[in-house]
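Open question from group meeting: does this chain pack into something compact, or does most of it stay loose? Before anyone orders reagents, we agreed to write out a predicted structure and look at it together. Recording both the input and the output here so the notebook holds the full record.
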Amino acid sequence: MEHLAWRRDKIQELSSKGHSQREIASMLQIGLGSVNRDLSYLKNQAKENIRKYIDERLPEEYEKCLVGLNSIVKEAWTTSQQTQDSREKMQALSLAKDCYAMKLELLTNATVVDDAIRFVSGHAKPARSTSSETETAANAKKSKTNCREETREIDYFQQPPNFTTNQVF
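Structure tokens returned:
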């Protein structure tokens, strides 16, 4: 069993360095079929790891981020209201503004996260692809693309917003 794990590690290492399956088989002095099976196994293991991460860890990490940002915003507002030092007040308000921007990005990308979870959950079933899974994958990609386009899109005819960005170094 240790030999198999070592071989798969070596195959993955050599593959990541750009070696072909034939080259890997020759270097390790094993059959081409073994290389092919091990690469297939490693690919499936990687898919399972991603599915597990999206199903189990991502929602928890996402929630932790939101809770942490809420705590920082609360502390920043408290600091800005309690201090007499205008520089410290501006730093606290700048921090609050940055946290709001991060929260907005997390919340607007929630659709992408949900689509990814649904997409991976759909692929955890038998290898048969359904039109629903294909549609979910397309929606996830479209959602992500739309989000990127919306953040880059600027209306040059609109009045600029009435706020300034202050950075303190």
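Observations to bring back to the group:
The CA atoms of residues 30 and 161 lie 65 Å apart.
Residues 125-134, 140-169 have pLDDT under 50 and may be disordered.
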